[in-house]
Amino acid sequence: MFDVHLHKVGLAYGDLQVFQQLDLSLKAGQWTCLLGGSGVGKTTLLRMVAGLVDQSDIRVEGRVTCDDGQPLAGRIAWMSQQDSLLPWATVLDNITIGERLRTRKFLRRSRLSSEALDRAHHMLELVGLDEKARVLPQNLSGGQRQRVALARTLFEDRPVVLMDEPFGALDAITRLNLQDMACDLLAGKTVMLITHDPLEALRLGHAVYHLRGHPAQLTDAITPPGKIPRSLDNAELMTLQGVLLDRLRHEESVA
Amino acid sequence: MSKRFAVLKPLLVFIGILLLWQGLVVGLEVPSFIIPDPVSVFKRMVSDAGLLWEHALVTMAEMLMGLTLGVLFGVLMALTLVYFVSLRPWLLPLLLVTQAIPVFALAPVLMLWFGYGMASKVIMTVLIIFFPVATCCYDGLRQTHQGWLDLAQTMGGGSWAVLRLVRWPSALPALASGLRVAVVVAPIGAVVGEWVGSSAGLGYLMLQANARLWVDLMFAALTVLAICSVGLYYFTDLLLKRLIPWQTSHH
Ligand SMILES: Nc1ncnc2c1ncn2[C@@H]1O[C@H](COP(=O)(O)OP(=O)(O)O)[C@@H](O)[C@H]1O
Ligand SMILES: [Mg+2]
After folding, report:
1. Of ligand 1's atoms, which has the minimum distance to the CA of residue A194?
2. Which of A94, A157, B98, B114 has the fewest beta carbons under 10 Å from its own?
3. In what residue span(s) does the ABC transporter domain sit (chain A) (predicted)?
4. Segment A28-83, tens digit of pLDDT
């Protein structure tokens, strides 16, 4: 396992400097949560780490390195906001889309190896949806859809997982359940999770950072006590949540 | 219940039009060389079934060939526009030109170049269909949900695989609306072509019948044309719904 380091990274869309001179480390096997209000640049930062900003009108500075010396590209799994499932593909086809995207077969439906199929079914079992393998995403609830997205992320089996508000569109109870499930299934992976929900960051993060300002800056890390997913009856957690909510609300009113 | 009613509705409209037609002709005593009554048109359709069928086949063939080629060229144009960015400034005006010149104005030229056979009608149809198909498909391909493209890129998909597995299927609902338009306008190309100059087809038959004041035959040909067009539309619509069962766009 390896740590991921961001060295003095910055990004600008034309004249809009979203952030600059940011330093951040993602510790191996831990969850790093980034909290911030909407429009502050969370998605932009995550896409930059994922190597997804290559358009000509975007200026990128700084470096992203791994402390084992290998590049990060090809070692990340990406899980984004709602609607990330392909609506024309069955649950099973959605989970295995990466495998099919990587086969170099030119024409015809590239057949999956039986090993890959078994693995996909196993992932579906892990998220409790094995009976939905042949169903289209439109016939699933929001929570079920994100469980499929989680299964797809697991299927990719990459050491680093980048998540952009993966549970943002879910109701409170479903969100808590999915947080627990993700914590359990992604144990051992290096996770960077972006959220606007302080409680989510505090429950899941080994380290929690707050991204704020224009250009955006990172605050010092908050390291809530206890193992993740932290339970809600922790008084310290609730106090921290109150502090962070206040800060976020203050930002919104200034902006 | 509501599904059965959906099939019933067009049928009721059709019967309503027939009744209104018959009522007007009988009630206002319109002379039969201006508007024949539905019954005599129907009789003509039965007595001249062979003739109508023969000419309908020609028109349908022109429409279907025009549709096939038009859709093919339209999709190729859309793919070129999306993947060869440097060609875009040259191709976009060309695309507009095919639309700016009315096909009616081109018809005589096409007759001159491609003769009075089916080729000129097929080309007319292609010219009409090309634009809606190309623009809809282009829009569909361009508006692929960024999240899916991000996902495909982090998964390490090559550009061909991404086109085949992500961009193309995501463009299908847009392409389908282009196809629905194409199917509706296809008969215009074929029939206008036949009017300008031909020796077969429903448009030709209508001109001939008109010249000889066989108004009932003319209306019979018109009815057959309408049936072909409407049939083609419903068939296409059904096929597209079958092939593209997922809900269209939600953002
Ligand atoms: N492709 C883009 N081109 C120009 N500006 C963008 C682009 N994407 C995002 N932005 C701008 O960058 C800022 C940060 O956006 P984003 O990273 O999506 O914020 P967040 O995820 O924190 O809500 C916003 O002001 C947004 O308008
Ligand atoms: Mg965002």
Report:
1. 21
2. A157
3. 4-238
4. 999 999 999 989 999 999 999 999 987 777 889 999 999 999 999 999 999 987 77
The closest CB to that of A101, out of B155, B172, B245, belongs to: B155
Running DSSP on this structure, what letter comes out for residue A5? Answer: E
Ligand 2 is an ion; its neighbours by CB within 5 Å are A 43
DSSP state of A67: T
Same domain, yes or no: A54 and A165: yes
Q: For chain B, what is the domain count?
A: 2
Atom of ligand 1 nearest to the CA of A57: 3
Residues B101 and B161 in one domain: yes
Kindly provide the b/e burial profile for residues B130-140, where b requires at least 16 CB atoms within 10 angstroms of the residue's own CB.
bbbbbbbbbeb
Domain that holds residue B196: 36-243
Helices and strands, counts by H and E, chain A: 8, 9
Write out residues in chain A with pLDDT < 50, as ranges: none
Where does the pLDDT of residue B100 fall: very low under 50, low under 70, confident under 90, or very high at 90 and above? Answer: confident
**Please, which residues have CB within 8 angstroms of residue B148's CB and are 6 or more apart in sequence?**
A84, A86, B166, B170
- Residue ranges in chain A assigned as alpha helix (H): 42-49, 91-95, 97-102, 114-126, 142-156, 172-185, 198-204, 235-254
Residue A155 CA to residue A101 CA, distance in Å, equals 13
- The secondary structure of chain B in percent helix, strand, coil, rounded to multiples of 5, reads 85, 0, 15
Structure tokens at B82: 């999306």
Range of the domain at A173: 1-75+160-180+188-255
Q: How far is B251 from chain A (nearest CA, A)?
A: 9
Query: Would you give the DSSP letter of residue B166?
Result: I
Q: Identity (one letter) of the amino acid at B214?
A: W
Q: Tell me, yes or no, whether B249 lies in a domain.
A: no
Tell me the C-alpha distance between A216 and A38, whole Å. Answer: 12
Q: What DSSP line would sit under A8-21, residue for residue?
A: EEEEEETTEEEEEE
pLDDT at B251: 40
Contact status, residue A158 vs residue A75, Cβ threshold 8 Å: yes
Please name the residues in contact with B66: beta carbons below 8 A apart, sequence gap of 6 or more.
B121, B122, B123, B124, B125, B126, B128, B129, B186, B189, B190
